[in-house]
Prior knowledge:
- By secondary structure, the protein is α/β, with parallel strands linked by helices.
- Helices cover about 35% and strands about 25% of the residues.
- The protein folds into two domains: about 5-105, 2-Layer Sandwich (ornithine cyclodeaminase, domain 1), CATH 3.30.1780.10; about 125-280, NAD(P)-binding Rossmann-like Domain (Rossmann fold, 3-Layer(aba) Sandwich), CATH 3.40.50.
- The longest helix is centred in the middle third of the chain and has 19 residues, at about 105-120.
- It is globular and about 55 Å long.
- The N and C termini lie far apart (about 55 Å).
Amino acid sequence: xxxxxxxxxxxxxxxxxxxxxxxxxxxxxxxxxxxxxxxxxxxxxxxxxxxxxxxxxxxxxxxxxxxxxxxxxxxxxxxxxxxxxxxxxxxxxxxxxxxxxxxxxxxxxxxxxxxxxxxxxxxxxxxxxxxxxxxxxxxxxxxxxxxxxxxxxxxxxxxxxxxxxxxxxxxxxxxxxxxxxxxxxxxxxxxxxxxxxxxxxxxxxxxxxxxxxxxxxxxxxxxxxxxxxxxxxxxxxxxxxxxxxxxxxxxxxxxxxxxxxxxxxxxxxxxxxxxxxxxxxxxxxxxxx
Length: 289
């Protein structure tokens, strides 16, 4: 019998720290060559988009496929969310589907966990660090949660185009994480923070990269298409660029692709995959003031 896990089921058992541990092991397998992670395949029916993301981790004995659909008319025509995600977990020995689970919350935590692992290996190790969060949605919440697992955070500052959403974020997340969270009236206020997380749907850069403090760590997660970016050319050029997957970044990360197209950097600017940092194949830029 196939196990069915609803969103509430997943929320009741999935913790950020546990997810970060699993994600770190997965990045290690990717770097060591024991992971099979094809680029996602897309099918475009007349009214939507269907994405299929399979993966196999040999050492962890994990075989799964995430299916995500985006149908913009769902809310008005079918009383369903625009984006729906499900994960099919298979027995790697038999191929049988053994679990179908809601993928929305799982994806949000997993994305946050990847930034948490990146922060663990690449950000400064100062005590009482500060965090700037661009965006106040679900992904922004997961970013802050993960960063607080990776570092001792003294204060956070959030900015969103909706001040009401930012205030709600600050109230809910300060209670959840026991961290002081302020609401910025202007995005430039965040640029003095030690760690920046960009979790928006913006198509154009969120800030002037020349104004970011030296030694800051940035988790850029919103850009997912060649023509879209949250980070400008200046900050990418200044940065030691570490990506989750080289193949994926060169296939769809506008943050990297646009500066290359402009001639500001070359493909060699991609320094390492996160897994290469974790396994010690390449050295990170972690510093202590």
